């Protein structure tokens, strides 16, 4: 096992144990520490992927060599985004600023939409990646579902990213368009229910 992978997983496991122990013994700061440790473990995996341009959180050097390069960097950015979000969440919980941040996220959900869109786009890139030039050797039955899932993830990711950016840039216009779309969808669903 690689040492850095052991440390990353150790931080994640110790963080999970800290959360369980804090809940069992009613230690509020223990939950914050556990979330912070999990975030640090995941972010460290992201930094490792960005630095080495190889997949992180793997137990041996030979695992996932087909994802070296750009897919590993995408994986690293996804891990860094998720780990950074957990570290930020732990900090906001510890300082008592989480309720204010939650109100901000409720008022401007475009931030969450954009982050989810980035993760979906990254997931689709990983699905599109050809690990080790296996594409010509894989049967069509295995390639087609993977490409379809990748296209759906890419489309949903771009839509979520664009929706989040629109909501951040023009909240009033976005809210008006959202109300119109909801009204049309409600009318369409009511029509379908009446017919059945």
What would you say this structure looks like, in words?
- The protein is mostly helical.
- It folds into two domains: 1-107; 108-196.
- 81% of the residues lie in helices and 0% in strands.
- It is built from seven helices and no strands.
- Helix 1 packs antiparallel against helix 2, helix 3 packs antiparallel against helix 5 (110-128) and helix 5 (110-128) runs antiparallel to helix 6 (140-169).
- The longest helix has 30 residues, at 140-169.
- It is globular and about 60 Å long.
- The N and C termini lie far apart (59 Å).
Write the layout of secondary structure elements.
Layout (H helix, E strand, L loop, with lengths): L2 H23 L2 H25 L17 H26 L2 H10 L2 H19 L11 H30 L1 H25 L1
Helix pairs in contact: 1-2, 2-3, 3-5, 5-6, 6-7
Query: Radius of gyration, Cα only, in angstroms?
Result: 21 Å
Number of helices: 7
Instruction: State the order of secondary-structure elements, H for helix, E for strand.
Output: HHHHHHH
Structural class: mainly alpha
Average pLDDT, rounded to a whole number, is: 89
How many E strands? 0
Give the structure's gist in a few sentences:
This protein is mainly alpha-helical and 196 residues long.
Key traits:
196 residues, mainly alpha, 7 helices
